[in-house]
Design brief:
The protein is an alpha+beta fold. It contains two helices and ten strands; from the N terminus they run ββββαββαββββ. The longest helix has 18 residues. The two termini are about 20 Å apart.
Length: about 120
């Protein structure tokens, strides 16, 4: 189960998407740390250029201990999927009114409800 740390509370009342610039395919990492860092900087620059609210988030699994940094951004669903594709993401998480959804970024894009976002939020 994916949970989130480092998320500002105002996010619970609007829509936004989460992104990670880490490229992976079926649990096999195929990008070096420096490539991930570079992609992360590019993603941040893209969000800043759009002029949308954005904040650092960390998605993690309490079951495996795996965690990776990402970005939350106030962005419409269609744009969120396009940005996810640009950064080679298979899927994104999308939050609307405290409901967490997951969606593919490609032609299969469709919101599938996961749970209440607030139930997956770990406050630091």
């Amino acid at each position: 189960m994916t949970a989130y740390r480092r998320v500002a509370s105002p996010l619970l009342c609007c829509y936004w998407a989460t992104y990670s610039s880490f490229k992976k395919a079926i649990r096999v990492w195929y990008q070096s740390s420096s490539q991930n860092d570079s992609a992360d900087v590019s993603l941040l620059a893209d969000l800043a250029q759009r002029g949308v609210w954005h904040a650092r988030v960390e998605g993690f699994s309490s079951e495996t201990g795996h965690a990776e940094p990402g970005w939350a951004a106030a962005i419409a669903f269609e744009q969120a999927c396009q940005l996810g594709e640009r950064f080679h993401q298979d899927a994104i998480y999308f939050v609307r009114d405290d409901i967490l959804y997951v969606s593919f970024c490609d032609e299969r894009a469709s919101l599938a409800q996961v749970s209440r976002f607030s139930r997956r939020l770990v406050r630091l």
